Amino acid sequence: VSVLYWKAMASVPDMVGDVSFRRSATDKKMVDRQKSLHVCSRNISSRNRHLMHDLQGLVPHARPHPKIEMRADVGDQLQELAHLHRCNSVMYLEARKRETAFLWIAQAPDGPSVKLELLNVHTASELRMAGNCLKFSRPLLHFDREFDNVPHLRIMKSLLTQAFNTPQYHPKSKPFVDHQLCFFFLDGHIWFRNYQINVEKRIADSELMEIGPRFVLKPVAIFDGCCRGSVLWKNPDAVAPSVRRKDKKMRALEKAKANEKVAAQSTRHKAKNPPPVAGPLSRVFQ
C-alpha cells in the first residue's frame, strides 16, 4: 500500500500544476453527454452492493438500474438497457458462488468490453479513512505507465476513463478538483485507490489522504462486443473460480489423509510401546 501511495504522490505536481481552486460560475451546458449504466446481478453480497453505492457516489453521470437475472443473453439485455437509459457505457457487477464477483466495463452498444475479477473489496464506510471530498466533485484520473506501454491495458484505460471521468459541465458535478482516482498496475492486477488532495500554498507540499473505497481488479478477458462477442485478449494467468475451489478442496482432503496417516502411526507406536506399569515405589517422591 505504501508503494501505491508514493506513486500517487509523485503524480500530483505533474497532474495538478498551478491550479486555482476557486468556484467558477458558468452558464455553459454539457456538450459531451456521457452516461454510464450501473447494474448488478442478483445474489450479490452486501459488501459488493455497498461498493456499487460508493462508485455511484463518485460518478455523477451514473444511471443506476435494479438487479437483473443472470442469463445467457445478458449482453443483449445490457445493450437494451443502455439504449433505454441512453447510456454509452455499462458497468455490470456479476455475482458468482461464494463471494466471487466479476466487474464488466463495456462501451455501448458495440463494445469493446473487459471482464475483471473483483478482489479485496473494502468499502468507504468500512475503512473509515481520514480523507474526505465533495460528492460529485471532479476527480483527477491517474494511470500507471504500464497502461500506455501494454496494448491490452490501453483498451482498459480507455474504458476506465469513459466510466470514471466526469463529463465537462455536467449539471451534477461540482467545480472543484479535490480528489484523485488512481489505477495502478502491479503483479498482474489493477489496484484502485481514491485519495483526497490536500492543497497547500506550494503544490509540492500537497498531501494525499485516502478516502476509499479500495479494491483490486484482475483482468480476465477483453471482448469485441458489449459483454459478449469474440475474445480479443485472454489472460493466460487467469484461473476460473471453480478450479480454485476444487484445488482448495483437494488440498484439504490431502491434509486430512495425512493427519489420518499420522494418527494411525501414533496408534501403532503406542501399541508397541505401552506405558510402564505403576509399581509400589511409584508414589514415593510425590
Total number of strands? 11
In the predicted model, the low-confidence regions spanning at least 5 consecutive residues are: none
The residue fraction in helices comes out at 25-40%
Structural class: alpha+beta
Largest sheet: 11 strands, mixed
Mean pLDDT: 86
Termini separation: 59 Å
Order of helices and strands: HEHEHEEEHEHHEEEEEH
Principal-axis shape equals: elongated
By DSSP (H or I, 4+ residues per run), the number of helices equals: 7
**Which value, in Å, is the CA radius of gyration?**
26 Å
Beta-strand content bin = 25-35%
Keywords for this entry:
286 residues; 11-stranded mixed sheet; 7 helices; alpha+beta; 28% strand
Structural overview:
The protein is α+β, with helices and mostly antiparallel strands. It has 7 helices and 11 strands. Strands 1, 2, 3, 4, 5, 6, 7, 8, 9, 10 and 11 form an 11-stranded mixed beta sheet that branches. Strand 7 (174-186) and strand 8 form a beta hairpin. The chain is elongated.
Compact overview of the structure:
This protein is of the alpha+beta class.
Secondary-structure map:
Blueprint: H1 2-16, E1 36-40, H2 46-58, E2 62-64, H3 74-84, E3 89-95, E4 101-107, E5 113-122, H4 124-127, E6 137-143, H5 146-149, H6 151-164, E7 174-186, E8 189-198, E9 207-210, E10 214-223, E11 231-234, H7 241-272
Parallel strand pairs: 1-2, 1-3, 6-7
Antiparallel strand pairs: 3-4, 4-5, 5-10, 7-8, 8-9, 8-10, 10-11
